[in-house]
Design brief:
Helix content is 12%, strand content 48%. The chain has 238 residues and is mainly beta. A hairpin with a 4-residue loop joins strand 2 (53-63) and strand 3 (68-74).
């Protein structure tokens, strides 16, 4: 018995027909015309993260519009003693840090973590995996102005709205969303979260942000980035 191969999804202007011009500009800038459309991406990155003090890290991440995983090695020297694993999928989120792979320093797998992780999945899908947030993937898009566009995703238990400021070519300049957290507060609440894109780079058929900084309380006087990263490799995933 033979099976009929599934046609490869490719990026065409027809997929953008019902979108407003600023949204079309973002997608047309990020994805090459006629490119195969993967479900997500796998990335490698390095940079600095503030965990009390600034520490170097390397990490691998997958993101696909519905989920993400982030596994990092944090610290100085050949041992990079701290291992951090964050993830979200199917309405559940978790974060864990282990020292030398053995001693658990922190672990969370509760409703607050899921809510925060869902919005992180939305932000990183929009920034790093544009094929996964096309309208035919169930994402609602609208333009607020000529340079501000908004994507709404349904990622239980949240329905996050990701706000992008783009330039005249469609490149992302800033990204932000209201994200569930308690940074600097006694109770959990929605806090402005986001950051700035400092550079972009072509990875095959995708033109993506490659250097960025992010933090809580974005676009307020309390904003202080805690994460600086450079994306070094991107591979499409099925």
């Amino acid at each position: 018995m033979t099976t009929t191969p599934v046609p490869t999804r490719r990026f065409t202007s027809d997929l953008l027909a019902d979108l407003e011009e600023p949204v079309r500009r973002y997608f047309s800038h990020a994805i090459s015309d006629g490119a195969p459309l993967p479900n997500g991406v796998r990335m490698a990155m390095s940079g600095r993260i503030k965990l009390g003090l600034w520490l170097p890290f390397t990490a691998e991440q997958t993101v696909d519009g519905r989920s993400f995983t982030w596994r990092a090695r944090v610290g100085r020297g050949p041992l990079t003693p701290l291992r951090v694993s964050d993830q979200y999928a199917d309405a559940a989120g978790s974060t864990e840090g282990r020292l030398l792979g053995r001693l658990t320093l922190f672990h969370a797998h509760d409703g607050n973590t899921a809510r925060s992780a869902a919005t992180r999945a939305a932000i990183e899908s929009v920034v790093f995996a544009p094929p996964s947030v096309l309208p035919d993937r169930g994402v609602a898009w609208r333009a607020e102005s000529e340079d501000v566009i908004i994507a709404r995703l349904d990622l239980p238990p949240e329905r996050p709205e990701v706000r992008l400021r783009i330039d005249e070519h469609g490149a992302i300049r800033t990204v932000s969303a209201l994200r569930w957290g308690n940074v600097g507060e006694k109770t959990f609440q929605y806090i402005p979260f986001g950051g700035e894109i400092h550079a972009e780079r072509r990875f095959g058929d995708l033109l993506l942000p490659s250097t960025l900084s992010v933090g809580w309380w974005f676009d307020t006087p309390r904003y202080a980035p805690f994460f600086h990263a450079e994306i070094t490799a991107v591979t499409p995933t099925l």
